[in-house]
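Hi support team,

I've been running sequence recovery on a batch of backbones for a student project. Most finish fine, but this one hangs at about 90% for roughly twenty minutes before it completes. I'm not sure whether the input is malformed or the queue is just slow. I've pasted the structure tokens below so you can try to reproduce it. Let me know if you need the job ID as well.

Thanks,
M.K.
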């Protein structure tokens, strides 16, 4: 048991506070050479960076936000939807562009497995169930035997502020670790690491959810397990904080890489733990966003609400139904709203307006096809919501537009219906 969980821990509001200035850290003593190499590599990458327009304030030594973190074990949560970070992006996921930067050992199972977001393989034979070191089905990261500890470093595709962690040990019983700890590298203070989780005991063959509090932006995550054993998946949920967002060109305002989030989803959405509707990948229908069949027209409309990466003015939408052959929607509704901090939690005060004209709403959405639909609203918005009619699947929804700048007035947009009326008048 770590010092943070022993010796009278500092507890407030259910969170256990941990000290990031503890010099008596056995892990750093055991792996000092490896940690020095990793930190040196990160520093070299930062020095060679060519990114411009980056503002990175440097926290001072002794800053409470740097030296103090807190966490809370969520024993009552059995799946992601039960947690307070269910709508957050998995910062360590492969869909974010994250990858394994360093691993101490991966004899039986690649460390790259812990950041995968595809469907888990199933054990079909009895010998596969009994022998967790069996070749051919390994779902997770599994190291060789007799290792006192093992660790892996994940470079996040886009940095962010961590608010929740899931240490998933599904499928591992005899190979499950006893304790796991996690530290994060501070993007704004190269070479400095902060504890997100001390050594915490984990339950085998299950999800282990933890809520964390540390306001610093992490660029790398290191997970350590004692003894060296196995982890199926590591989910690091939080808010994406990109180095910069282009303001002089059209971008996808609904991109997960810029910080967009799915904040509300229909009941029983398939594979809803992955925000597929805003992800730029389409290997199969498993990468899509599909609602269940609507057998009752009186059911609550199946809206998916998306928080845009930033306040912006949308020019057009791209609705992709690739791989959806017999289960694409017949048509679609897309609405938008300007949601402020004051009414973010008050759904009744939010006013939604149609972003596509009536002709487009009645327009058929075809299977396995990319549809480009103009946006008729010229004012800035912060959120959009989409509803398939009557139900069905969408591979991805793209919102092409520009970041809204306060000192630049938006130009009025003209709907297709108004364009036709103007054309008819000219014809007269």
């Amino acid at each position: 048991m770590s010092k943070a969980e022993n010796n009278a821990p500092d507890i407030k509001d259910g969170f256990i506070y941990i000290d990031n200035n503890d010099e008596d850290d056995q892990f750093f003593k055991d792996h000092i050479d490896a940690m020095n190499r990793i930190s040196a590599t990160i520093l070299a990458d930062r020095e060679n960076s060519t990114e411009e327009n980056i503002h990175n304030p440097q926290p001072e030594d002794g800053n409470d936000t740097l030296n103090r973190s807190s966490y809370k074990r969520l024993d009552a949560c059995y799946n992601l939807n039960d947690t307070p970070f269910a709508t957050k992006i998995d910062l360590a996921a492969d869909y974010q562009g994250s990858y394994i930067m360093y691993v101490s050992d991966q004899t039986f199972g690649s460390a790259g497995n812990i950041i995968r977001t595809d469907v888990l393989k199933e054990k079909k034979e009895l010998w596969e169930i009994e022998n967790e070191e069996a070749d051919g089905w390994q779902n997770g990261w599994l190291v060789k035997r007799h290792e006192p500890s093992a660790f892996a470093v994940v470079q996040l595709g886009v940095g962010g502020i961590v608010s929740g962690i899931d240490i998933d040990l599904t499928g591992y019983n005899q190979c499950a670790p006893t304790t796991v700890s996690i530290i994060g590298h501070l993007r704004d203070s190269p070479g400095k690491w902060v504890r997100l989780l001390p050594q915490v005991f984990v339950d085998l063959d299950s999800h282990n959810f933890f809520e964390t509090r540390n306001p610093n932006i992490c660029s790398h995550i290191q997970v350590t397990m004692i003894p060296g054993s196995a982890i199926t998946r590591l989910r690091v949920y939080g808010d994406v904080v990109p180095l910069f967002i282009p303001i002089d060109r059209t971008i996808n305002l609904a991109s997960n890489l810029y910080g967009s989030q799915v904040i509300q989803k229909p009941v029983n959405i398939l594979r809803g733990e992955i925000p597929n509707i805003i992800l730029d990948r389409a290997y199969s229908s498993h990468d899509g966003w599909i609602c269940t069949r609507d057998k009752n027209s009186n059911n609550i409309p199946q809206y998916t609400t998306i928080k845009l990466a930033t306040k912006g003015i949308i020019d057009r939408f791209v609705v992709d139904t690739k791989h959806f052959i017999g289960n694409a929607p017949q048509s679609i509704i897309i609405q938008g709203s300007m949601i402020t901090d004051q009414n973010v939690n008050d759904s009744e005060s939010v006013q939604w307006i149609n972003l596509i004209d009536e002709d487009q709403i009645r327009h058929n959405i075809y299977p396995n096809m990319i549809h480009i639909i103009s946006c008729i609203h010229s004012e800035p918005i912060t959120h959009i919501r989409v509803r398939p009619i009557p139900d069905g699947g969408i591979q991805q929804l793209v919102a092409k537009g520009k970041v809204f700048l306060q000192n630049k007035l938006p130009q009025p947009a003209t709907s297709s219906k108004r364009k036709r009326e103007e054309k008819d008048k000219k014809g007269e």
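--
Follow-up from support: It reproduced on our side and the slowdown came from queue contention, not your input. The helical segments are 26-30, 32-47, 64-67, 126-130, 358-362, 416-427. No action needed from you.
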